[in-house]
Automatic annotation (TrEMBL):
N-acetyltransferase domain segment(s): 1-148
PROSITE patterns in the record: GNAT
Superkingdom of the source species: Bacteria
Name of the featured protein: Acetyltransferase (GNAT) family protein
Keywords for the protein's UniProt record, in alphabetical order: Acyltransferase, Transferase
GO MF annotations, alphabetized: acyltransferase activity, transferring groups other than amino-acyl groups
InterPro entries membership: Acyl_CoA_acyltransferase, Bact_Acetyltransf, GNAT_dom
Length: 148
């Protein structure tokens, strides 16, 4: 999958993707998931929001935050209308490629414990749970994947 960095002009579409992907979790969590509160303008300006390089409107995004010893997959979101087509798996693969190219041996991520579907997807992709914690009002599950 080819990716491109998000631009300021992508902001409205990014908000649509995030809202579509995360709104169904509000009843499970009791409030909006953390990605719905992110400052995407600042993240775009920092050059950490990646979109599939597609001809039409983007249907997915991921936020990658390089760390000294790993790549943090801070957010991956697929618009509800595009879920089930393999975009999320393709983005996970792209993140792994980017980590390898940067010489980083591991990808880490966290998700809400109520997001059982996401936990299954990450486990099937080879991510292992490393810990659980209650942070900033969220029950989070932390996971990592060592890259070979």
């Amino acid at each position: 999958m080819r990716l491109r960095l998000a631009r300021a002009a992508d902001r409205d579409r990014i908000d649509e993707i995030v809202t579509s992907a995360y709104a169904p979790y509000i009843p499970l969590i009791g409030h909006a998931p953390a990605p719905m509160h992110a400052d995407y303008g600042a993240l775009i300006a920092a050059g950490v929001v990646h979109l599939p390089d597609e001809s039409g409107p983007s249907a997915a995004l991921m936020v990658l935050l390089p760390q000294p010893d790993h790549l943090l997959l801070d957010n991956i979101a697929v618009h509800a209308d595009a879920q089930g087509r393999g975009l999320g798996r393709a983005l996970l693969g792209a993140a792994e490629n980017m980590a390898r190219q940067a010489g980083l041996p591991e990808i880490r991520l966290y998700t809400n414990a109520a997001m059982q579907r996401n936990l299954r997807i990450y486990a099937m992709a080879g991510y292992k749970e490393t810990r659980r914690a209650h942070e900033q009002g969220f029950h989070r599950v932390f996971m990592s994947k060592r890259l070979s």
